[in-house]
Amino acid sequence: MKKAMILLLASFMLLTACSSKTNDGAASSGSTDTKQADTSSKEVTVWAWDPNFNIKAMNLAKEAYQKDHPDAKVNVVEYAQADIIQKLNTGLTSGTDSGLPNIVLIEDYRAQSFLQAYPDSFYDMSSSIKAADFADYKIGPTSLDGKQYGVPFDSGVTGLYVRTDYLKQAGYTPDDLKNVDWDKFIEVGKAVKAKTGKDWLTLDPSDLGLVRVMIQGAGSWYLKEDGTTPNLAGNAALKDALQTYKKLMESNTVKIISDWSQFTGALNSGDVGSVPTGNWITASIKAEASQSGKWAVVPTPKLKNTPNAVNASNLGGSSWYVLNVPGKEAAAEFLAKTMGSNVDLYQKMNKEIGVIGTLKAASGGEAYKQADEFFGGQKAIQDFATWTTQIPKVNYGMHTYAIEDILAVALQNYLKGADLDSVLAEAQAQAESQVK
Amino acid sequence: MRSLLNRFKQPSLFGKIFVIMVVSTIAVAVMTSWVTVRMSQQLFMDTFSITNSKVIRQIQTSFESFHYAIIMATYDISQSGTIKNFLVQGDSNSLGNARAFYGMKDQMKRIQASLDTYGVGTIVLGVNGRSYSNDRSYWNRSMTELKNSPLTQEMLREPGRLSYHYLGGGSTPLIVATKTLREPDSKQIYGTLYMMVRENSFRQFYNNFTSTGNDVLILNRDGMVVSSNRNELVGTKSTLLLDHAQAMNQDKLDYQSLKYSGKDVVMLSNYLSSYDFYIVNLIDKKMAMGRMLPTREIILIGACIVSVALLILLIITRRLTLSLRMLVRQMSSVAKKNFDNYLPVYGSYETRQLGQGFNYMLDELNDYISQLVETQKERRNAELAALQRQINPHFLYNTLASVNILVQRGSKEKATETIHALISLLQNTISNVSETITVEQELANMKDYVFINQVRYGDEIRVDYFVSQDCMEAQLPKLIIQPFIENAFFHAFNLKDKGYIYILIARENEALICEVVDTGDGMDLDQDAKRLPNSKSRRQLFTGIGIRNVDERIQLLYGEHYGVSITSKLGEGTKVRIKLPWLVNSTETDEI
Question: Does the predicted interface ipTM exceed a cut of 0.85?
Answer without folding.
Answer: no
